[in-house]
Design brief:
60s Ribosomal Protein L30, Chain: A, Rossmann fold, globular, alpha/beta, 4 domains, about 525 residues
Length: about 525
């Protein structure tokens, strides 16, 4: 079996693969483009990449022997995971390998800004001795704001506390107990954090919610002289707005390790900005991190090719071949339940309870629970969440996960039920598999019977049970040119409250959503994207 190492990884990892007589290891000496890669190694059984080489749909479809793609690192933006899944190609990564490296880089950038170290180095090299111009500030007693308190953000918080800083953070998924253990003051909205900080560091995944969240309005609300650090994902800090704040002198400085476009173009205006410290995406660039991820990716790829053992898989659970076929339909159901629950429950939850009923009680619970968590935590962790790291992610957020088996008799032969608990508030969804094709269906929302096809766009709302309400809702959507594909209704009693679920062909425009939410006969309006 041919294993192609496309990007530089730890020599120890390469040597581990070369020691196996079943493998032919090809180490490319330069990065190849899509067509060059296909022409050079069309018989590859495995690709090992970092962030440089792109494993596209065309590459995946043109390599008939391909079984696995291993990413020596966390993010898999350069791998077409959907195409790999469709072809049955496993995509593996090395979660957690760069946690300490990235946290230390972010903290190093903050220290460099505070003490003006880059300016001091440039001044000394120019033959100057500008002590007065290079007066910095201490971190002790300053306030650090952290956006995102997952693995990396938590490590930054620990270091900041050791330096005598006051740490405040925004992470809608972090439990209050976990925040207390980290000695972090949580705020409910990022807008509550910006005006208070001397330094702001970003450690959130890139998503629709976080893209450009540190923008002109956020920066304007920060105190004059504050500094911003982004070593997470390019684009979370709006680069245009950051540039304007640096030119105007409102910010005391900024440091970027990640950019909207990478590599950063030579003519990028960022390169000439005053007060901007830049590094070329060095978060994982330490000898320790690179050796760790190189060895780890060699281990998981070798174990998969030789023993069919799946670890650190982004697109499928860690199961042996015999169990995989049995569990696969429940994985799809579990992930859908998690996705729905995450979008109708409070963001901050203390506990998640996963209940197996009927035939589902005979399943191995861990892979199904991981699928539920993957769906539930997708907004919290973005594309980096997978079935391997979900439990550690849940733990880092202070989310307690409980699994139970129930002998309760229901209308369904097999079923899953998931409830999220935020203080005294409980939100729940339940699902089962329909027909011989084992199609996932949502059949309970907060204990009320429904039938939801968990795909596309789903509109979920409560409304007064009175004549004409279905037509009224349909008219609002009709005026917005939104087509209804499917409908499910349930009422508690005649003239009481009804739960309405609509599968839609598209997301309603903001005006239509406002009309629904402003209607006194309608409440709890949720648009669920599946």
């Amino acid at each position: 079996m041919k294993i192609v190492v496309c990007d530089p990884v730890s020599p120890k990892g390469v040597a581990m693969l070369q020691e196996q007589s079943a493998f032919e290891v090809v180490v490319l000496d330069q990065r190849l483009g899509e067509d060059e890669l296909i022409a050079t190694v069309p018989d590859a059984a495995a690709f090992v990449v970092r962030s440089e080489t792109k494993i596209t749909r065309k590459v995946i479809e043109s390599c008939p022997n391909l079984k696995v793609v291993g990413r020596a690192g966390v993010g898999v933006d350069n791998v077409d995971v959907e195409a790999a899944t469709q072809r049955g190609v496993v995509v593996m990564n090395t979660p957690g390998g760069n946690t300490i490296s990235t946290a230390e880089l972010a903290f190093s950038l903050m220290i460099s800004l505070a003490r003006k170290i880059p300016d001091a180095v440039a001044s000394m090299r120019a033959g100057k001795w500008d002590r007065k111009k290079l007066k910095g500030s201490e971190l002790n007693g300053k306030t650090l704001g952290i956006l995102g308190l997952g693995r990396i953000g938590s490590e930054v918080a620990t270091r900041a506390t050791a330096f005598g800083m006051k740490v405040i953070g925004y992470d809608p998924y972090l439990s209050l107990a976990r925040a207390k253990a980290l000695q972090v003051e949580l705020v409910e909205k990022p807008e509550d954090l910006y005006p208070r900080v001397d330094f702001l560091t970003v450690h959130m995944p890139k998503s629709e919610e976080t893209d450009g969240m540190v923008n002109a309005a956020a920066i304007a609300s920060m105190k004059p002289g504050a500094c911003i650090i982004n070593a997470a994902r390019g684009g979370i800090v709006n680069e245009t707005d950051l540039a304007e704040a640096l030119r105007s002198g409102h910010l005391g400085g900024a440091a970027l390790d990640v950019y909207t476009t990478e590599p950063l173009p030579e003519d990028s205006p960022l390169r000439s900005l005053p007060g901007l410290l830049m590094t070329p995406h060095l978060g994982a660039s330490t000898a320790e991190a690179q050796e760790n991820v190189g060895i780890e990716i060699a281990e998981v790829i070798g174990d998969f090719l030789l023993n069919d053992s799946i670890r650190n898989a982004v697109n499928m659970p860690s199961l042996d071949a015999r169990t995989s076929d049995l569990v696969r339909p429940y994985l799809a159901l579990g992930e859908k339940l998690g996705l729905v629950l995450a979008q109708i429950s409070p963001k901050r939850n203390d506990r998640l309870v996963i209940t197996f009923g009927g035939k589902a009680t005979a399943l191995p619970g861990d892979p199904v629970s991981r699928a539920v968590l993957k769906g539930f935590l997708q907004n919290a962790a973005g594309s980096e969440v997978n079935t391997v790291n979900v439990r550690s992610l849940a733990n880092s957020l202070g989310l307690l996960v409980e699994e139970t088996k129930s002998s309760e008799e229901t209308d369904f032969q097999e079923w899953l039920h998931v409830s999220a608990h935020s203080g005294d508030k409980r939100t729940s969804v339940g699902g089962t598999l329909f027909s011989s094709r084992l199609l996932p269906r949502i059949v309970r929302v907060n204990s009320q019977p429904v039938e939801i096809v968990p795909e596309g766009v789903v509109l979920l709302l409560k409304n007064t049970d009175r004549p004409g309400m279905v037509g009224h809702i349909g008219s609002i959507l009709g005026r917005a040119e939104v087509n209804i594909a499917n409908m499910s209704l349930h009422r508690d009693q005649a003239g009481g409250e009804a739960l309405t679920v609509l599968n839609l062909d598209s997301v309603p425009a903001a005006e239509a959503m406002k009309e629904l939410r402003d209607d006194p006969a309608i409440s709890n309006v949720h648009v669920i994207k599946l």
